TrEMBL record:
InterPro entries: Cbl-bd_cap, Cobalamin-bd_sf, DNA-bd_dom_put_sf, MerR-type_HTH_dom, MerR_fam, Meth_synthase_dom. Transmembrane segments: none annotated. It holds the Pfam family MerR_1. Residues 17-86 form the HTH merR-type domain. Keywords: DNA-binding. SUPFAM superfamilies: Cobalamin (vitamin B12)-binding domain (SSF52242), Putative DNA-binding domain (SSF46955). It comes from the Bacteria. This is DNA-binding transcriptional MerR regulator. One of its GO terms (molecular function) is cobalamin binding.
C-alpha cells in the first residue's frame, strides 16, 4: 500500500498541473528530492508552462507515487525509476531477503574477523550484507544475534571487550560506507536517553529509514533532558524516537514534556516504564521502519 498522504490519493483531472512544491507535499518528500530524481533518473514533469516553469501532470503524479511506494519497500531509487518507466516487474530480490542459513554461516565469518581484530575484513562482510540485503535483515538476522552472543561473552570476567568495541566501530563504519541515497526533508528526530552511550541502534535506524527515503535528525548519545525538550520544541518533528537500553536510563527522559511530536520509545529499558498515553513502543527495527516510513 502506498504511504502517500490522503491528498495524493484525491482524483485529479487529467489536464491538471501541479507545482513541484505541491507534488512534494502530496508525496511526502522534499522538493530537492524531486529535482534529484528528475536530474538523475528522468522522473521530471512532462509539462512546461510559459516562462519555462515546469509543472507536473496527473500522470506524472501517478508515476511518482509508484516510485515512492517501491522506494519505501526498500527498492533503490534507480531500480524503482526503471521499473516504473519501463513497466517491468520490480526486482526479484528485494533488500531484506536474507535466508537464515546464510546469516548463520556468515555470523561465523563475522566472529572470526572480529576475534582477529581485523576491522577491514569485518567491515567488508557487513557492507556486503547491507548492500545485498538491506539494513533491516542485516541487523535483525546477522548483527543482533552476533552482538547478543558477544555481549554475553563480554559480561564474563576477562571477556573480550576489545572485540565488542571493534565490532561496534566496524558496524558504524559499514553504515557510513554505503550512501543511503536521496531522502526527504528531515522529519524524524532520533535521540538517546541522558547518559545512554549506546547509540548504535539509532545509527542503524537512521540508515534503514534513509533507505526508504525518510530524512532524520540524529542528536546522538547522552542527550540531556533540557536539550531534548528544546530540540523537539525548536524543530517540531513529525516523530521523535528516544532510545534507552536500561530502565534507569529510560526514567531520566522527560517524556511528559515532549508534547510537540509523535513520540516513540525504543530499547529494552522502556519495558517497565510508564509512558504518556499516545506514546508508541518500538520493539524491533522492522517495526520501527514500518511505523516511521
Amino acid at each position: 500500500m502506498s504511504r502517500t498522504g490522503p491528498a495524493a490519493r484525491e482524483a485529479m483531472p487529467p489536464e491538471a498541473v501541479l507545482t513541484p512544491a505541491a507534488v512534494a507535499s502530496r508525496l511526502g518528500v522534499a522538493v530537492a528530492t524531486l529535482r534529484s530524481w528528475d536530474r538523475r533518473h528522468g522522473l521530471g514533469p512532462s509539462s512546461r508552462e510559459p516562462g519555462r516553469h515546469r509543472r507536473y501532470t496527473a500522470g506524472d503524479l501517478r508515476r511518482l507515487e509508484r516510485v515512492v511506494h517501491l522506494v519505501r519497500q526498500g527498492v533503490p531509487v534507480a531500480s524503482a525509476a526503471a521499473t516504473v518507466s519501463t513497466g517491468a516487474a520490480p526486482p526479484a530480490t528485494m533488500p531484506g531477503e536474507l535466508p537464515d542459513r546464510v546469516a548463520s554461516r556468515r555470523r561465523r565469518s563475522l566472529r572470526g574477523a572480529a576475534e582477529k581484530l581485523d576491522p577491514d575484513a569485518f567491515r567488508r562482510i557487513v557492507v556486503g550484507f547491507l548492500d545485498r540485503h538491506g539494513t533491516v535483515d542485516t541487523w535483525q538476522k546477522l548483527l543482533v544475534p552476533f552482538l547478543r552472543e558477544l555481549g554475553e561473552r563480554c559480561a564474563e570476567p576477562g571477556g573480550p571487550v576489545e572485540v565488542e568495541h571493534l565490532a561496534t566501530d566496524g558496524i558504524i563504519a559499514a553504515l557510513h560506507a554505503i550512501p543511503p541515497g536521496t531522502t526527504s526533508a528531515a522529519s524524524v528526530l532520533l535521540a538517546c536517553a541522558p547518559d545512554e552511550q549506546h547509540s548504535l541502534p539509532l545509527e542503524v535506524l537512521r540508515h534503514a529509514l534513509a533507505e526508504r527515503g525518510r530524512g532524520t535528525i540524529s542528536l546522538g548519545a547522552r542527550v540531556p533532558p533540557h536539550s531534548l525538550v528544546t530540540a523537539v520544541a525548536t524543530r517540531r518533528p513529525a516523530a521523535t524516537v528516544v532510545w534507552a537500553h536500561t530502565e534507569d536510563l529510560a526514567r531520566q527522559v522527560p517524556v511528559g514534556e515532549l508534547t510537540d511530536t509523535r513520540l516513540f520509545v525504543a530499547g529494552p529499558g522502556w519495558e517497565r516504564v510508564a509512558v504518556p498515553t499516545g506514546t508508541e513502543r518500538l520493539r524491533t527495527l522492522a517495526e520501527a521502519v514500518e511505523a516511521l516510513s
